[in-house]
Design brief:
3-oxoacyl-[acyl-carrier-protein] reductase (NADPH) activity; single chain; 15% strand; alpha/beta; Rossmann fold
Length: 245
């Protein structure tokens, strides 16, 4: 049985990298996508291969569909058909809504929503033709509850929920599943750089009393990509330590 081939967008760092490395532990073929962090992407490839998988690093800006098409060609050349697509690429441009420029609004929605649209459309036939096609979108707790200074990010992440549920309906007749993971506050470089008083407030507001880990998110994504999740589709799975209980 051939290894699954998994494309993880925005996987040179953070949650995306953790997902790529977890797929490597499963012995998968992994396409590590990056926009500008070439060195970090190459390090991720080394980690995936050291853990038993195969990997390539592919530069592609997900807001440019032609670059996404080139990423598909690279994936096909290296590994053949793609079985799993994880739409993880994202950015934030935090600013109070009253002061937010249209550019700051557009750039966040472009990466999160246009990026998911481009990648899913380009890899759609792969997912449909795969024996166990899996579409997994990474959203955020912020898409449900909003967050001060993140109107653009919250809107984009909320849009991923509707996108996931619609694709789940359309892909179901092909036997392909689509699910969404919505992490809470995870211990990534971006979160760790927050002021300590802000992190302390987050921990106090979380029933489990701590930040989540990248590994905890990656484990759920790995499950959704596996045959163990074959009757799960259209779901939004929260990984937030009980924060919205």
């Amino acid at each position: 049985m051939r290894p699954k081939t998994c494309v993880v967008t925005g996987s040179s760092n953070g949650i995306g990298r953790g997902i790529a490395e977890r797929f490597g532990e499963e012995g998968c073929n992994v396409v590590v996508n990056y926009r500008s962090s070439k060195e970090a992407a190459e390090e991720a490839v080394e980690t995936v291969e050291a853990s038993g998988g195969s990997a390539i690093a592919v530069q592609a800006d997900v807001t440019d569909i032609e670059q996404v098409e080139q990423m598909r060609e690279a994936a096909h050349e290296a590994f053949g058909q793609v079985d799993v697509l994880v739409n993880n690429a994202g950015i934030n441009q935090d600013v109070l809504f009253k002061e937010m420029s249209h550019e700051e609004w557009d750039v966040v929605l472009d990466v999160h929503l246009d990026g998911a649209f481009h990648c899913t459309q380009v890899f759609y036939d792969d997912l449909v033709d795969a024996e166990q096609g899996r579409l997994i979108n990474i959203s955020s707790i912020v898409g449900k509850g909003g967050n001060f200074g993140q109107a653009n990010y919250a809107t984009a992440k909320a849009g991923i929920f509707g996108f996931t549920r619609t694709l789940a309906l359309e892909l179901a007749r092909e036997g392909t599943t689509a699910n969404c993971v919505a992490p809470g506050f995870i211990s990534t470089r971006m979160v760790e750089e927050l002021p300590e008083k802000v992190k302390e407030r987050i921990r106090n507001d979380t029933p489990l009393g701590r930040l989540g880990t990248v590994k905890e998110v990656a484990e759920v994504v790995a499950f959704l990509a596996s045959d163990r999740s074959s009757f799960i589709t259209g779901e939004i799975i929260d990984i937030n330590g009980g924060k919205d209980l």
